[in-house]
Design goal:
This protein is α/β, with parallel strands linked by helices. It is built from eleven helices and six strands. Strands 1-3-2-4-6-5 form a six-stranded mixed sheet, with helices on both faces. The longest helix is centred in the C-terminal third of the chain and has 18 residues. The protein binds iron/sulfur cluster (SF4). Iron/sulfur cluster binds next to helix 7.
């Protein structure tokens, strides 16, 4: 190559952005592409808070704000506590935490809050009703309205207090306008009451009304035909009787309920 040809070639390379020539082969601009520095070490993922032992396989859902679930939030098994999580829970307080944000059924959309149940976690006697009403939905406690006051009076007449017993419902969220629970809602909520009973292990369960009885036993009992007769649920004695709300409408039935409660007192060793 002549000097003139070399000058023209160097001018062309300069126009193309080359500033150095690598006499070993590739132009300096490419060769000078320094090796990439090693990437910085990836940051450690944030440490996960250690979960209680009972949540080893399924950590509790993150807390959600209380109040009604927005209507556009999907309800149903997707994203809600699964039945295995409920069954594996071995502590009543933890089960309440699991239930609080529950969206296993459509009642999540209209409730104010889940009404889990209250009372003595080691109670000999449980009362199981149907579902929260307006007062219960507002206060987060079962049986606090007029029917609840009547139940409180019945418990007192049995020489106990509400703190001696455990009170819960088979449905934990208020059905809109206090309508009857739908079968799929009863199915979705049933694991909670079953697990509550398994953990409390009461000697006697007083089941209040037809829906509670049918949901708990999954049998089509009529309350008027089995009221006052001992039944069994998973080895626990059940006494079916009328719901206090029914007694408010039919005060004459109070004497039947009192007969039933006297049987319960005798079973618990309390002198009627
Ligand atoms: S009623 Fe029971 S299953 Fe349905 S959202 Fe409430 S807690 Fe969950």
């Amino acid at each position: 190559m002549t000097d003139e040809e070399l000058r023209r070639e160097l001018a062309l390379l300069k126009e193309l952005g080359y500033t150095h020539l690598d006499v070993q082969g590739a132009p300096a601009a490419r060769a000078s592409a320094a090796p990439e520095p090693p990437p910085p070490p990836a940051p450690e993922p944030p440490a996960r808070p250690s979960a209680p032992a009972l949540f080893d396989s399924a950590p509790p859902p993150p807390p959600r704000p209380s109040g009604p679930v927005p209507r556009d939030v999907p309800v149903g098994p997707e994203g809600a506590p699964d039945t295995r999580t409920i069954i594996d829970c071995d502590n009543l307080a933890d089960l309440a935490v699991i239930a609080a944000p529950c969206t296993r059924c459509r009642l999540a959309r209209t409730r104010t809050q889940v009404v889990f149940g209250t009372g003595n976690p080691n109670a000999d006697l449980m009362f199981v009703g149907e579902a929260p009403g307006r007062d219960e939905d507002q206060q987060g406690k079962p049986f606090v309205g007029r029917a609840g006051q009547l139940l409180t009076d019945i418990i007192k007449a049995m020489r106990m207090t509400r703190d001696d017993v455990f009170i819960a419902n088979v449905i934990k969220c208020r059905p809109p306008e206090n309508r009857n629970p739908e079968p799929d809602e009863l199915d979705a909520c049933r694991p909670y009451i079953r697990r509550q009973i398994e953990m409390i292990r009461p000697k006697v369960i007083v089941v209040l009304g037809r829906f509670a009885l049918q949901s708990l036993t999954e049998k089509a009992y009529s309350i008027s035909s089995v009221r006052g007769q001992w039944l069994q649920h998973e080895g626990v004695k059940i006494m079916p009787t009328y719901h206090p709300a029914y007694l408010l409408r039919n005060p004459a039935a109070k004497k039947d309920v009192w007969q039933d409660m006297k049987k319960v007192m005798t079973e618990l060793g309390i002198t009627p």
